[in-house]
Specification:
Largest sheet: 8 strands, mixed
Shape: globular
Distance between the termini: 14 Å
CATH topology: Rossmann fold
Structural class: alpha/beta
Helix content: 25-40%
Order of helices and strands: EHEHEHHEHEEEEEEEEEEH
Strand order of the largest sheet: 2-1-3-4-14-13-12-9
Mean pLDDT: 95
Number of domains: 1
Radius of gyration: 15 Å
Number of helices: 6
CATH superfamily: Class I glutamine amidotransferase (GATase) domain
Number of strands: 14
Length: 192
């Protein structure tokens, strides 16, 4: 079974619908035992970093997430909270990925909202995905490029569109809202 983390951040229903569309059973939960025993865990999110992290800490989910050994996929805010730190709300992250989440420089075009492609992709999460494939992004903060970057997108500046370290994978874009490209990326994750 696929566990989708419930932690007072939006977008869990869209993720569940996409997983079900691919033919997998999924459950939305914040139960530590279900998360630990799931075949895969998805950590989605749309929201604000500090309040989301506070919810994780208050419910002991921060320690649960860090202890998981099965494949974990962070999406958008889920990806950002897997990093060391976010400028949004001056938030200490889970520290899985060795990078910081920074606010885009002030411009008229923040947040990034819409379709964008990649300047680089690598790894099994991007099997059958090419740099000209578009995915859907909605964010004002970005993860800086680091050794764990597996996809790069350019919007104002180059940033990590995806990260991977050990059993942890993450995307800044929303695969569940990215049409066939996004479904292929989710399918690739579920096949790991």
């Amino acid at each position: 079974m696929i566990a989708i983390l419930k932690y007072n951040a939006g977008n869990v229903a869209s993720v569940k619908n996409a997983i079900n569309l691919l033919g997998y059973n999924s459950v939305i939960t914040n139960n530590a035992e279900i998360l630990r025993s799931a075949e895969k865990v998805i950590f989605p999110g749309v929201g604000e970093a500090s309040s989301a992290m506070n919810y994780l800490i208050e419910n002991g989910l921060d320690d649960v997430l860090k202890s998981l050994r099965q494949p974990v996929l962070g999406i958008c805010l889920g990806m950002q909270l897997l990093c060391e730190y976010s400028e949004e709300g001056n938030t200490k992250g889970l520290g899985i990925f060795n990078t910081k989440v920074l606010k885009f420089p002030p411009k008229d075009i923040v947040p990034q909202m819409g379709w964008n492609n990649f300047t680089e992709v690598k790894g099994n999460l991007f099997h059958n995905i090419h740099i000209n494939n578009d995915c859907y992004f909605v964010h004002s903060y970005y993860a800086a490029i680091c050794a764990e970057t597996i996809a790069v997108t350019d919007y104002i500046l180059p940033f990590s569109a995806a990260l991977q370290k050990n059993n942890f994978y993450a995307t800044q874009f929303h695969p569940e809202k990215s049409a066939q490209t996004g479904l292929q990326i989710l399918k690739n994750f579920l096949s790991i």
